[in-house]
């Protein structure tokens, strides 16, 4: 039977058991790790997208997304602590729910990592274009954004994606100190924004508070539609959950680290949202009583020549420029320009390692797990991934890319939450360094929350997700089903040795 083709958990764990990591991380360190991993492109870029979908009620959307993310994080942590090896949700589901589901999850993770990397690159280009404009260098409009967003080809997003791909092929490796410095830059930038923008808030800018209502399934707008987009701003918590093997008293400290980092980031995000809305307003562009979807030609046309927050490609810098703090706004833009490429790097890195693992399992061609003889990196899959990321970034707007990324992430989280419950029934006595509290309440709520947000993505996004899933099933039927190591009765082969140190010691960041 297809769904009985399961890779034994003990075999997966053999790799992890060869090396024992020292348990040295406490609750504070985990919380700081989580904050660093979560704060990224989402808050710097998607504030304008959330404003277009929900208006001032975007602040409610931040809370809804955080709650769903917390539930998913608690479920994710149990499997991450049990299977502390490469492959993310793909590996977990292979061990629990079988090869077909694992393939589907791994295929969906392309949306979480590769498409998200494109979204980050587009977000970076928005801030970079703003910086160039402030220096008197103006790119042609056609080269600033993709064809769906009023341009033709986003040359900066395309270029930064290829540059980072080249760095990954060469095996560049950054230290944790460099990463901590970049995290500090982002936190300082957000703190400066809050201190300047919040005192300028005016009550009139919050009226009406719910201009688009709560939204409806497949609508993509309203508070729930904004929450579905804002979910992108919280992804990265798996930096905490995957650190379970190095955590002292994980049953106590992992929930503190997860919930603590999500709480801190939610407060940050709500203050940023309050400052942005209160200072210049964020009423959505509405035509014939319907809010326009961000990243569409109609939205681009409505925003032509507009200074509205919902039209900005560099929303936080734009707010400060509009209230008379242009120099600080440029510094915010500079902070984003410096820090965000590291997020693109981490996401492309994560994608290549998932493809590497799937290739090693025989589900993708063996050529994808080839390691460069000099650089010790999986150069083939890195170059292929990088080219696709660059094309995504060049052709699509940030909001659409973020939503497509969210669709894959939400699907993977639902599969992981279901996997926790299945494994609780199948192997109740297996050692769990971290146990999801009230699993039979938390996991169903995580599945329901992820499904709620998934259904509040736009029909376009959901259509893209299912189209991608169908392509994946065809690829699996034609190749992976026959070629996988389990299908051929082959033990997990020895992986080629490669540069195992990630560019940053943290999870993917949005």
From TrEMBL:
Main location: membrane
Parts of the chain that traverse the membrane: 27-46, 58-77, 151-171, 178-198, 218-237, 258-277, 331-350, 380-402, 408-424, 436-454, 460-479
Keywords associated with the record: Membrane, Transmembrane, Transmembrane helix, Transport
Localization: Membrane
InterPro entries in the record: AA/rel_permease1 (IPR002293)
Membrane topology: Multi-pass membrane protein
Transport in keyword set: yes
A Pfam short name: AA_permease_2
Record's protein name: Amino acid permease
Source organism: Thermomonas beijingensis
């Amino acid at each position: 039977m297809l769904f009985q083709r399961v890779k034994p958990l003990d075999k997966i764990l053999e790799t992890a058991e060869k090396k024992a990591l020292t348990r040295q991380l406490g609750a504070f360190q985990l919380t700081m790790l989580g904050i660093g991993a979560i704060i990224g492109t989402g808050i710097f870029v998607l504030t304008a997208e959330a404003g277009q979908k929900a208006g001032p009620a975007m602040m409610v959307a931040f809370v809804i997304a955080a709650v769903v993310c917390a539930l998913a994080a608690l479920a994710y942590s149990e499997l991450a602590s049990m299977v502390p090896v490469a492959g993310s949700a793909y590996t977990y589901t292979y061990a629990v729910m079988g090869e077909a589901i694992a393939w589907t999850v791994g295929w969906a993770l392309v949306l979480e990592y590769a498409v998200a990397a494109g979204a980050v690159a587009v977000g970076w280009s928005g801030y970079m274009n703003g910086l160039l404009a402030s220096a008197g260098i103006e790119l042609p409009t056609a080269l600033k954004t993709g064809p769906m967003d009023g341009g033709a080809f986003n040359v900066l997003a395309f270029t930064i994606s290829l540059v980072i791909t080249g760095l990954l092929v060469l095996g560049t490796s950054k230290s944790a100190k460099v990463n901590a410095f970049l995290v500090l830059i982002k936190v300082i930038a957000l703190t400066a924004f809050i201190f300047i923008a919040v005192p300028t808030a005016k009550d009139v800018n919050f009226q009406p508070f719910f201009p688009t209502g709560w939204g409806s399934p497949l609508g993509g707008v309203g508070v729930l539609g904004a929450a579905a987009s804002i979910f992108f701003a919280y992804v990265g918590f798996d930096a905490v959950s995957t650190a379970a093997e190095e955590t002292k008293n994980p049953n106590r400290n992992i929930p503190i680290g997860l919930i603590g980092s999500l709480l801190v980031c939610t407060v940050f995000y709500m203050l940023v949202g309050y400052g942005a809305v209160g200072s210049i307003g964020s009423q959505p562009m509405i035509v014939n009583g319907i809010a326009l979807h961000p990243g569409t030609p109609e939205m681009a046309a409505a925003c032509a020549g507009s200074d509205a927050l919902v039209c900005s490609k560099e929303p936080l810098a734009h707010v400060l420029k509009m209230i008379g703090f242009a120099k600080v706004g440029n510094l915010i833009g500079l902070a984003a320009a410096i820090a965000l490429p590291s997020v693109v790097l981490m996401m492309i890195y994560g994608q290549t390692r998932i493809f590497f693992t799937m290739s090693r399992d025989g589900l993708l061609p063996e050529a994808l797990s080839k390691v460069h003889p000099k650089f010790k990196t999986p150069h083939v899959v890195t170059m292929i991934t990088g080219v696709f990321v660059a094309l995504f970034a060049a052709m699509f707007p940030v909001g659409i890319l973020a939503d497509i990324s969210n669709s894959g992430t939400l699907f993977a989280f639902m599969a992981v939450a279901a996997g926790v419950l299945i494994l609780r029934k199948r192997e109740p006595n297996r050692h769990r360094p971290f146990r999801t509290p009230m699993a039979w309440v938390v996991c169903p709520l995580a599945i329901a929350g992820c499904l709620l947000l998934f259904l509040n993505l736009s029909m376009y996004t959901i259509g893209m997700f299912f189209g991608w899933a169908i392509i994946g099933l065809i690829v699996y039927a034609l190749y992976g089903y026959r070629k996988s190591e389990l299908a051929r009765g082959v033990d997990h082969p020895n992986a080629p040795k490669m540069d195992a140190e990630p560019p940053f010691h943290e999870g993917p960041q949005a």
